[in-house]
Automatic annotation (TrEMBL):
Entry's family note: Belongs to the phosphohexose mutase family.
Gene3D superfamilies: Alpha-D-Glucose-1,6-Bisphosphate, subunit A, domain 3 (3.40.120.10)
Protein name as catalogued: Phosphoglucomutase
InterPro entries, A to Z: A-D-PHexomutase_a/b/a-I, A-D-PHexomutase_a/b/a-I/II/III, A-D-PHexomutase_a/b/a-II
Domain of life: Eukaryota
Record has Signal as a keyword: no
GO BP annotations listed: carbohydrate metabolic process; purine ribonucleoside salvage
Keywords, in A-Z order: Isomerase, Magnesium, Metal-binding
Pfam families: PGM_PMM_I, PGM_PMM_II
Residue ranges constituting the Alpha-D-phosphohexomutase alpha/beta/alpha domain according to the UniProt record: 1-36, 68-174
GO cellular component, as recorded: nucleus
Single Gene Ontology MF annotation: metal ion binding
Amino acid sequence: MVTASHNPKEDNGYKVYFANGAQIIPPHDRGIAEEILLNLKPLPSSWETSVVESSALRTDPYDEIWTSYMDDLKKLSYYSEANSRSSLVFTYTAMHGVGYKFIVQAFKVFGFKSNFVPVKEQVEPDPEFPTVKFPNPEEGKSALELAMRTANENGSKVILANDPDADRLAVAEKSASGDWLVFSGVQLGALLCWWMIYTFKAHNKHVQGKTPRPTPPCPALHMCSPDVSPQLVHQGPVSWSVLKTS
């Protein structure tokens, strides 16, 4: 995968995935780095990209993965009917990356109707990142200027932002005063953790009971957290343990 991820365009590079579908780890990374140093001058044939289309090694699982991913996503949609009636308007920016198509479909899967406003200047993939120096939503308001302007113009109170390869997320909410609050990663982690616990309890009634902690199908759930208070996740009936990380 060729990407600058959430970095400036000058840092365009590539990510390498191993046979298990995950990004490479030692010793594979060192082996690749050594081969690069031994082949710093590209061969003339390196620029012949047409061979990719005819190579027996080439596979394209895109359609299969798209369908499987959306099917799995639908299993997490518990309130599609309520979503269809929601008047809440979301603003979304892909930050010149690939996330737009996926977020549009995800909104449909979750039952939202016309609740979606894209930041048009940042919808299409563009490795030059012409409207933002650091396409990292975690930069906060400095990276969300266009999104905030679009949201203000369209009466939207919530912003969702991905980085160019759509593996980072920022969320911002407009307060009653008109200011924008950009949630920190810790705050989002706490909210997502609460939502997972809430939906688990709501859709697994058999784990509820009169006793404080009846035996659930999963007897324990372990959470890793750098800063989030353990009290946020110590909610029955499941027995939670929190591993504090630095």
